[in-house]
Q: What sequence folds into this?
């Protein structure tokens, strides 16, 4: 119960920060949330709200929770691996490099990316199948819709936070206007 309260409080505070006017945003909170922190908050929110949103029984919830966490870990791990490979490809293909990277090195990273994409699809399918084993058909459909709604909220919140950060940065760059006497 306390964890649910903490997550709800953090999310509502984050939403308030994202939608507040620049002069109303506390300095300590403005721009302090990183995307990874926001992702963790939304993962926790998903866990906390899933029982009600999916109408899970008390018997289903522990199994669902364990399998949901596996799904989230799989998604996070594969995204991190993909980000690393994309960063390597970006560095290797940088037109400003004094000496261009060898094609064989680029080809190797591209092959690794293709292998990761194949493995990711299989791992995600396996993780979703494990979640689905705990749910009935209606709950499976609700879960997919619920995940989509959470993702949309996260993107919306990230966009508002970025916009707020830009506004704050622009406000800091411009010297304050002095009233005319």
A:
């Amino acid at each position: 119960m306390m964890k649910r309260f903490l997550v709800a409080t953090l999310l509502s505070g984050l939403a308030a920060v994202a939608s507040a006017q620049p002069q109303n945003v506390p300095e300590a909170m403005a721009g302090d949330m990183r995307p990874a922190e926001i992702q963790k908050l939304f993962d926790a929110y998903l866990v906390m709200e899933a029982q009600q949103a999916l109408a899970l029984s008390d018997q289903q919830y522990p199994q669902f929770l364990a399998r949901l966490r596996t799904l989230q870990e799989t998604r996070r791990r594969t995204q991190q691996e993909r980000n690393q490979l994309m960063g390597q490809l970006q560095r290797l293909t940088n037109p400003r490099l004094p000496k261009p990277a060898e094609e064989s090195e680029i080809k190797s990273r591209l092959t690794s990316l293709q292998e990761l994409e194949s493995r990711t699809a299989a791992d995600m399918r396996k993780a979703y199948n494990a979640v689905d084993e705990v749910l009935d058909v209606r709950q499976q459909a609700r879960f997919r819709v619920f995940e989509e709604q959470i993702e949309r909220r996260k993107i919306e919140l990230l966009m508002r936070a970025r916009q707020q950060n830009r506004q704050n940065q622009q406000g800091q760059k411009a010297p304050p206007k002095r009233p005319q006497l």
Notes: The two ends are 57 Å apart (CA to CA). Confidence is low (pLDDT under 50) at residues 1-10, 14-30.
